[in-house]
């Protein structure tokens, strides 16, 4: 059964139709590339899935049941996590502290409960090992590479047993070596049965790691097909409007 299903979902802001009649499904352990030019509606679509916006029309379903999200915490409760482009990390804290930020582990009996740093370091280390990342729990974020920072942000999604991870431009402005590291992190999520939506402008990344590509233009879905059945040239044509609709 699909992790997430959107049926004829639209979102408008007054007279502006940001997303228009989108239907799609996302399966467990599937990496879906979401592509489109600026203003195509990608961000609005992702924000609906992440609980920032309610659809104006249409229905979202998870496991066949209607999914109603009023705020991001509702999405997280259903196993939907988002890794923002800016990552929202605290540079002055360790990797483990960032992983558990807002969800710190404590020990002792109230009112003498204190932070359990040992448990957080141990669990963060386990998550980094699962992700095959070289990031170490005690390392300060400000001393990390772009790839290691992505590993910290992705590790946070593993605390809540995420079923769907939305990744917003994870390979923007990082080196070629770090891009390879981030793509490997995405593969490890997929191998654990977690679905990933990769929002990206980088064609090579999508065609390297995604199973399927969805292209949006002017709020509409103009392609939804297996990577093996498409090509960078076709996707470029769809994004620019040179091709109206995928074959």
TrEMBL record:
Sequence ranges assigned to domain ABC transporter in this UniProt record: 4-243
UniProt entry keywords in alphabetical sequence: ATP-binding, Nucleotide-binding, Sugar transport, Transport
Molecular function terms, GO-annotated: ATP binding
InterPro entries registered for this protein in UniProt: AAA+_ATPase (IPR003593), ABC_carbohydrate_import_ATPase (IPR050107), ABC_transporter-like_ATP-bd (IPR003439), P-loop_NTPase (IPR027417)
Annotated Pfam families: ABC_tran
Residue stretches in coiled coil: none
Gene3D superfamilies: P-loop containing nucleotide triphosphate hydrolases
PROSITE patterns linked: ABC_TRANSPORTER_2
Annotated protein name in UniProt: Simple sugar transport system ATP-binding protein
Organism: Phyllobacterium ifriqiyense
């Amino acid at each position: 059964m699909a992790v997430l299903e959107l049926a004829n979902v639209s979102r408008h802001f007054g007279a502006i139709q940001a997303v228009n009649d989108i239907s799609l499904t996302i399966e467990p352990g599937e990496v879906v590339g979401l592509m489109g030019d600026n203003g195509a509606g990608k961000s609005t679509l992702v924000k609906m899935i992440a609980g920032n916006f309610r659809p104006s029309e249409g229905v979202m379903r998870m496991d066949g049941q209607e999914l109603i999200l009023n705020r991001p915490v509702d999405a997280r409760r259903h196993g939907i996590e988002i890794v923002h482009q800016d990552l929202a990390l605290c540079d002055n804290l360790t990797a483990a502290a960032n992983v558990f930020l807002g969800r710190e582990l404590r020990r002792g009996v109230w009112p003498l409960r204190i932070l359990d740093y040992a448990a957080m370091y141990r669990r963060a280390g386990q998550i980094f090992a699962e992700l095959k990342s070289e990031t170490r729990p005690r390392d300060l974020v400000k001393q990390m590479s772009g790839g290691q920072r992505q590993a910290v942000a992705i590790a946070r999604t593993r605390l809540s047993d995420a079923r769907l991870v939305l990744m917003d431009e994870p390979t923007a402005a990082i080196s070629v070596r770090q891009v390879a590291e981030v793509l490997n992190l995405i593969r490890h999520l997929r191998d654990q049965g977690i679905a990933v939506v990769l929002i990206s402008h980088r064609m090579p990344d999508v065609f390297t790691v995604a199973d399927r590509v969805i292209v949006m233009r002017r709020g509409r879905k103009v392609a939804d097909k297996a990577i093996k059945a498409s090509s960078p040239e076709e996707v470029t044509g769809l994004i620019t409007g040179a091709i109206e609709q995928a074959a």
